[in-house]
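User: Predict the structure for this protein chain, please.
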Amino acid sequence: MTKTRVIVSGFGVVTPYGIGINKFKKGLFNNSPTFSKFKHKYVESCEVQEAALVNEIETDTTESLAIKMALIAVKEAVDNAKKPLLSDSAGVFVGTGVGCIDAIEELFFNNNSLSDFDYRFGVVGNIANAIAQEYGISGQVSTFSTGCSSGNYAIASAMSSIQLGKIDVAICGGVDPRSVIAINCFNRLGGLDKNGIKPFDKNRNGTTIAEGSAFLVLENLENALARNINPIVELINYGFSCDAYNPTVPEPTGEQASLSIKKALEGIDLSQISSIFAHGTGTKLNDAFEAKCLKDVLGKYSSNVPVTALKSLIGHSGGASSAMTVCSAIVCLTENIIYATISTKDIDDNIDLKVVFKNENLNSGYSLINAFAFGGNNAVLLLKKY
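Assistant: Here is the predicted structure, written as C-alpha cells:
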C-alpha cells in the first residue's frame, strides 16, 4: 500500500526576531543574535538573566502571550497556504512545554491569588482549543507536552493522522512563552551559560532561555494539488522513542535516541542526507549525547553532513523549539542556504560533526531535524524540498 504523501503548504512564526517569516529569514541569514536581559523582579536574583524574548506583542492580565503568539503564527501559515478548507476534515496539533504559564505567573504575582476563571490558563489544551475555535475546526484537536520535543511530536502526529486518512489538513506546531519559573529552575539546575549558548563548543556550559511560536499547515499532496498549491517541502518520515531513564539526564548509551533517528531514516540512502538541524542545546551532556547518536547512526556520513543549531541564534524556546527548527529548515531548503551556528568557535575534540560556522550553500537532499527532550522524549523528523 502506497503511503499518502504529506506536504507543507504554509508556515508562520513569531520569534525573537519579530513577527513573521521575513524577519525570521533575515535574522537567520544575517546570523543576528537575539539575546537580552529578562527583566522581572523575580528574575533579579538569578545568576543568569539572559534570554531571547519576543518584544512585538503586548498582553494584559486577561490574556496569555502563548495563545497570542500561536494565533499570530497560525494566521501567517493559513494565509500562506491560501486558506485551505478547515472544518471536520481538519485537525489541530499543538506542542507546548509550559502552556499558558505566563498568564498564571502574572496573575499570581499581581494578585497573589487566582480565581476559578483564571485557572483556565492552567489547561495546556487551551492553546489548541483557541486555534480550533478561531478557525471552526471540529476534527481532531490534540496537545502534546513532551518538553522540547513537543513541536516535533505535534507535527509528526499530524502527518500520521493525514496518512491514516483521518483528516486532510492539519495546523500543527509548537509554542512556549517566557516563564519566570522556567528561568529560575534552569538556573537552579545549572543549565544556563552566563557567557551565552555555544552549541558543540568545547567551552559550552549551558543553554539560553527563549520564547516563540512556529506553525505549519500540512496537507495530503493530492488535496494540495487540487487547490493549485505549490508544495513547499514534503514530510518524509519521523521517529519517536523514550529513554525511560531520568527526568533531566540523557541515557548514556544513546540507544533510544539513536533509534528515533533510525526510524526517521528508514529506507533512506544515508549519502542523500544534505543537512542536519541539531537539537544543539549548548549543554555539556546533551551536545555530546547528540553527537554520539548521530555518529552511531550515520557512521562516516556524520562528519560530512553540514550541521547547524538554531538555538545559537534564538535560544531555547522549549516546546516551540523543534517546530521553530523545522521552520528554519524550510527557509533553508527554499533558499538553498544553511545558516551558521554562531558563538561556536572551537568544536569539542570528542564531537565529530561538521558544524556550520558561516552560511553555506545547501545541496538538495534530505534534512534531519532532531529533538531530544527532558524525560528522554525523542522525536526526529525527515524533510525534503518538494
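The mean pLDDT is 94.
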